[in-house]
C-alpha cells in the first residue's frame, strides 16, 4: 500500500515534468537514459519519504507509540477469531469488534472515547428503533414488508443526513449519526431475512462494546495522549511564539541594515505564522477534550471554552504581528534619525509585551498564577504613555518630512495595538487562573518595576 | 436519535444553570413549578433547534437535496436484500454494499469519488496482500498459523497507522489507509476459519464496488455538488467580502460620530471576519476537487493550487483589514482637521482597492478576464502617490500635534498595505486567467481613468 501511495504521489507531482522531458527527447530517442533517470528520481523520492517518516517520529515520539498501540489493540481483538470458545459464542459477528477497533482507535483519549461512546450509544438506539421498525413492517404482510422497511430506511437516512449539517451536532455527534444510519439500515434490512433480529442486535451491540472498550482501555492505560493536555500546551506555546517574535522585533526593526546581513534569515521571527491558522486544531482538541475524564490537573468539566477564548485573542494578536512583520521587511524604511527617536520606547513596548506573553505562557504551562506578567504589561503601558509624551513634546524638527514619519508611526501604533491585545490576553489568562485556582508562588527574583516619570530619548 | 441528541445538548448547556436553580429553591421546595419551567425550557430549545434546521435548509437547499440523495442511494442498495436472485449470489456480504454507501456518500462529488476510489483500491490491495499473508501463514502449521497471522496484523496496523500521520498522505489517502488496515485484518483473520479466502475477497470487492458506484452515479447524475465549483465560489466570495469592507471603510472611518448613530451596527463591515478562518475549508475543498472529473468549465487537472495561492493572499489582506477595523472603533481618533486633510486620498485608496477586489471576484465568478480591475488598482496606486505628495508638501501646521497624526498615519499606512495586497491578488488572479484562458469581453461602460497630476486636498 505504502509503495503504491508513494508511486501515486510521485506520478501525480511529476506528470507535467515527465511530459516535458518526453517531448524534448523525441519519441525515437527515448531509451535507457530516461528510464535510468526516472528510477533515480523514484529512489530519491522514496528516500525523501522515509526521511520524512523518521522526522515525524522524532518530532513527536507519541506517534510511534500510538501506532504500536493500534497494532496491539487490533491483535488483541483478533483473538476472538483464534480462540475457539470465544469464536463459538460470537461467530462471524466477531468481525464487528475488529471493525470497531480500526475505526474507533484514535490518537488522543478524548477522540477515542468520543467515537467509542458515539458508536456504542448509536448502535444501542438504532438497534432498538430497528427492532421496532421490523415489528411494524411485519404487520404489513409479505408484500408490504419490504415497502414499509424501504420507507423507514429512506426516511431515517434522509433525516439523519440532514441533521449532520447542524454545526453543533457535527462537532460532537457526527460519528454517532453515521453509525445510527448504518446500524438502523443493516438491522432493519437484515431483519427482513433473519427472524432472530433481537439476537443480531444483541451480538452487534456486544461486539461493538468489546471493540470499543478494548480501544478505550489501551488508550487510557498505555501511555495515554490527552487532547486536553495538548490543547493546554498548544495555547501556551502559541502565546510563547508571539512572545519570541515581540522580544526580537525591536532589535530587528531598529537594527541598521548596513552590516550587510539580510534581515530575512531570522527563523525565530517566523514562528508566529502557525498561530494564524491554529483555529481548526484548537476547536478539534477542545471537542475531544470534552469527552475526557479527570486526569492530572484537568477535571471532567474543565473550562475548555476559556482556552478557546484565549486562543482567539492570541490569533487576533498574531494578526497585528503579521502587519508588524510586513514593516520589518518593507522597502520604505524611515530615516535613522526619526527611528532612533522612538527606538527605546518602541523596543521597550515590544520587549515588555513579549516578556508578558512568555510569562503568561509559562503560567499556563506550569499552572502557577502569572506574577510578573502584570508588571511587564504595566511596563509596556507606561512605554505607551512615554511615547505619547515624546510625540507631544515636539521633539521633531520642523523640517522633518511627515512622509518619513508614517512608517515609524505605523509601527508604533501597531505596537500599541499589540500592548492592548496582550492586556486582553492577560485578563483572560487571569480569569482562567481564577477558574482553575492556579497556585500562587512568590517569585525568587523580583522583576523590574514599572517605568514611570519622564520619557527617555533614544540613542540618536 | 435526534430527540436524544437535543436532550443531550440541552442538558450539557444548562447543567450549571439548572444546578444553580436547584440550590436556590432548596430541596424540599421543589415541586411542579420547576418541572413545568424545565419542560417549557426544553420546548423552547426544541423549537430553536427546528428553526435552526429550517435555516440550514434555506441557506443552502442543496443540503436538503443531498439528504434525499443519501436516502435514495441507501434504499437502492438495500434492494440486494429484498430481491431474491441478488441476495442468493451475495448472501450476507450484501451488507458491505450498505456499509459502503453509508460511509462513502458525501456532500460533494469530489469527496464521494475520493472516498470511493480510496475504498475500492484499498480493498483490492489489502485483499491481495491478505491472501498472500494467508498462504504464508498456512505454511507454518496449525500452531504457527495464528502466531504468524497475528504478527502480520500487528505489523501492517502499526505501519499503516504511522504512515497516516504523514500530512500529504493524510490529506488524500487517509481513508484508503483506514480501509487497508480494516480489510487486511478482516480477511487475514477470517481466512483462519474460512478456506475460501479468495471467494471472500472477491465478494467483498464486488459489494464495495457496487456500493461505491451507486454512490458515485447518484452523486454525479442527480443535482451534483462539485467541490471545485464550491472552492471557486468561496475564493470569489471571500474577495468580494473584503471588497465590500473596503468600499464602506472610507466613509465609515471619516464620518463624524456626532450624528448620534453608533458605528458598531454595520454588519456589512463584519463580513471579512469569516475570511480569516477559511484556510481549512479551502484546503479541504481543493483536496476534494482534485478527484473530480471534467465538469462545466473545470478540467480534471484544474489549477487548484493557484486558487489556494489566491486564498492565502486574500487572508493576508484580511489580516490587514482586521487591523484597520480595530481603528474604526478605536477610542482615540484623530482630530477632524487632521483627518479631513487626508480624507479624500484615503477614501479613494480604500474605495478603489475595494472596487478592484470586487471586480476580480466578479472576474473569477464569470471567468472573464478582469478588465477594470487594473484601472482601479492604478487609481489606488496613484492615490498612494498623492498621499505621499500631500505629506511631503508640508500642508500640516507647525502646531500640529504629532500624537494626533499617529492614528491617521497608521490608517493611511495600513491602506497602503492593503493596496499592495490587492495588487498581489490581482497579479495571481491574472495568472489564473492566463492558465484558464478566461474570456476577453470588452466592457460596455468605460471605467474612470487613473487619476494623475496634482493631489487634491480633502474638504476641510
UniProtKB/TrEMBL annotation, chains A, B:
Residue intervals passing through the bilayer: 64-83, 89-109, 143-163, 175-193, 205-227
Main location, first listed in the record: membrane
The organism's place on the tree of life at top rank: Eukaryota
Secretion signal, residue range per the UniProt entry: none
Cross-referenced Pfam families: ALMT
Keyword Aminoacyl-tRNA synthetase in record: no
GO terms under cellular component: membrane
Compartment(s) where it occurs, according to its Swiss-Prot or TrEMBL record: Membrane
Statement: the UniProt record of this protein carries the keyword Cell inner membrane: no
Keyword terms of this UniProt record: Ion channel, Ion transport, Membrane, Transmembrane, Transmembrane helix, Transport
Membrane topology of the entry: Multi-pass membrane protein
Biological process annotations from GO: malate transport; monoatomic ion transmembrane transport
Protein family (similarity comment): Belongs to the aromatic acid exporter (TC 2.A.85) family.
Name of this chain's protein: Aluminum-activated malate transporter 2-like
Originating organism: Gossypium lobatum
Amino acid at each position: 500500500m505504502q509503495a503504491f501511495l508513494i508511486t501515486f504521489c510521485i506520478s501525480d507531482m511529476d506528470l507535467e515534468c515527465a511530459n516535458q522531458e518526453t517531448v524534448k527527447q523525441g519519441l525515437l530517442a527515448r531509451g535507457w537514459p530516461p528510464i535510468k533517470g526516472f528510477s533515480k528520481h523514484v529512489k530519491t523520492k522514496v528516500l525523501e519519504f522515509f526521511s520524512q517518516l523518521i522526522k515525524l517520529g522524532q518530532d513527536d515520539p507519541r506517534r510511534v507509540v500510538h501506532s504500536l498501540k493500534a497494532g496491539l489493540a487490533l491483535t488483541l481483538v483478533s483473538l476472538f477469531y483464534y480462540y475457539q470458545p470465544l469464536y463459538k459464542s460470537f461467530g462471524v459477528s466477531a468481525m464487528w469488534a475488529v471493525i470497531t477497533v480500526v475505526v474507533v482507535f484514535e490518537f488522543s483519549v478524548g477522540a477515542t472515547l468520543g467515537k467509542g461512546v458515539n458508536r456504542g450509544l448509536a448502535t444501542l438506539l438504532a438497534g432498538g428503533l430497528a427492532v421496532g421498525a421490523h415489528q411494524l413492517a411485519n404487520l404489513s404482510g409479505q408484500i408490504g414488508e419490504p415497502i414499509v422497511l424501504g420507507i423507514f430506511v429512506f426516511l431515517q437516512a434522509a433525516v439523519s443526513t440532514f441533521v449532520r449539517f447542524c454545526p453543533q451536532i457535527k462537532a460532537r455527534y457526527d460519528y454517532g449519526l453515521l453509525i445510527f444510519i448504518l446500524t438502523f439500515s443493516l438491522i432493519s434490512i437484515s431483519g427482513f431475512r433473519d427472524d432472530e433480529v433481537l439476537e443480531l442486535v444483541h451480538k452487534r451491540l456486544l461486539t461493538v462494546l468489546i471493540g470499543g472498550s478494548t480501544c478505550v482501555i489501551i488508550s487510557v492505560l498505555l501511555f495515554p495522549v490527552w487532547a486536553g493536555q495538548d490543547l493546554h500546551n498548544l495555547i501556551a506555546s502559541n502565546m510563547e511564539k508571539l512572545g519570541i517574535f515581540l522580544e526580537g522585533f525591536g532589535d530587528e526593526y531598529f537594527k541598521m541594515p548596513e552590516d550587510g546581513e539580510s534581515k530575512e534569515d531570522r527563523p525565530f521571527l517566523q514562528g508566529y505564522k502557525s498561530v494564524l491558522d491554529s483555529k481548526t486544531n484548537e476547536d478539534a482538541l477542545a471537542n475531544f477534550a470534552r469527552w475526557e475524564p479527570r486526569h492530572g490537573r484537568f477535571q471532567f468539566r474543565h473550562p475548555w471554552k476559556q482556552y478557546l477564548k484565549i486562543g482567539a485573542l492570541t490569533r487576533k494578536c498574531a494578526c497585528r504581528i503579521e502587519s508588524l512583520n510586513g514593516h520589518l521587511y518593507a522597502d520604505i524604511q524611515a530615516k535613522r534619525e526619526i527611528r532612533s527617536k522612538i527606538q527605546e520606547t518602541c523596543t521597550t513596548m515590544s520587549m515588555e509585551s513579549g516578556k508578558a506573553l512568555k510569562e503568561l505562557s509559562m503560567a499556563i504551562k506550569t499552572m502557577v498564577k502569572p506574577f510578573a506578567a502584570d508588571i511587564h504589561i504595566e511596563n509596556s503601558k507606561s512605554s505607551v504613555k512615554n511615547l505619547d509624551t515624546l510625540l507631544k513634546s515636539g521633539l521633531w524638527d520642523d523640517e522633518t518630512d511627515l512622509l518619513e514619519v508614517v512608517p515609524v508611526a505605523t509601527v508604533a501604533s501597531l505596537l500599541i495595538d499589540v500592548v492592548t491585545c496582550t492586556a486582553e490576553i492577560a485578563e483572560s489568562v487571569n480569569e482562567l487562573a481564577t477558574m482553575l485556582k492556579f497556585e500562587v508562588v512568590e517569585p525568587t527574583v523580583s522583576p523590574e518595576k514599572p517605568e514611570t516619570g519622564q520619557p527617555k530619548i533614544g540613542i540618536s
